[in-house]
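Ex. 9. Protein: C4-dicarboxylate ABC transporter substrate-binding protein.
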Amino acid sequence: MFRKLMLLTTALVTLGTSMAAAETKVLKYTHYQPGRPDQPKHAAALAFEKCVEDTTDGSIDVQIFPAGQLGNATTALEGLRLGTLEMAVVHDGGISSVYRPFDVFALPYIFPDHETAYKVLDGAFGKEFADAMREETGIRLLAYADNGIRHFTNSKHPIKTPGDMKGLKMRVQPAPVFISLVESLGASASAIDWAELPAALAQGTVDGQENGVTNIMAASLYQSQKYATLDGHVYSLHAYLIGDTFYEGLTDVEKKAIDSCVVQARDIHRDMTRAQDLSAQKVLTEAGMEVYVPTAEEIAAFRDIAQPAVQKQLEGSIGAEWVSKLLKAAAGAQANSQ
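Predicted structure tokens for C4-dicarboxylate ABC transporter substrate-binding protein:
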């Protein structure tokens, strides 16, 4: 009798353990910055992990894979669509490879400051854009965060006017819109993946690149780039993405946890990146770079050349609708802040 009771007890414990394991949903989460808490993406990921697991009492197990451990952005986005990956924080250029309208955010010199960008992204335009992306790709865009305001750097000479770009070989993201941006200013553009960029700069394959200070510091690009021009040509984005099939398979409580915790992660990500953006001159100077801050008139000279060229390219590649809507939303946000 005792033996039967022991066997029954063991079976019940095993069954209970198996049921608990079956109920736990694994959320694999990848991003592309080093796995250190001083990196905005990773600090945000750690906060998201704790928030989700605490809020759901462990029914979702968040597993973080930093520094592109699960493959490049294209691989991650395909994983979200196929259901082999649950969540990723991906930069704008990578997203454009599966949803071309994301290129619209590369329209240069459209956001004068962070506050204007947040109003547009967190408002009606941002929601409409996310809904359209989900419908076409099966990837749900949960939140927009900063990838840093993009600036030009190079190893040859200071860039103060569009004419200073002529003759430079510049690395850009693998997205046609960034090629149009650089070439409109007279430089030649080379599309090089992020992981290959430090080597390309060190070896002189390209003379320069364009990125935010967070990425310049994270990849130690200052080691091969002497000159930086803080023109702020593009407000670059990271997007918090989740496979829609996975999301729809969650309980209402779990969905609410994801939705609320991603806002917490987004705000940490934004705050850390914005702080570096606002201290770009100091940070890059201390890293040994020669930093130039253009005047409003000099930035206008860049805008007058680059914006019409990129707008024309965008209207040809993604159509005029999203371009028009973004310009209208940005103008409205600026008017409301004045």
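Check your answer against this statement. The radius of gyration is 22 Å.
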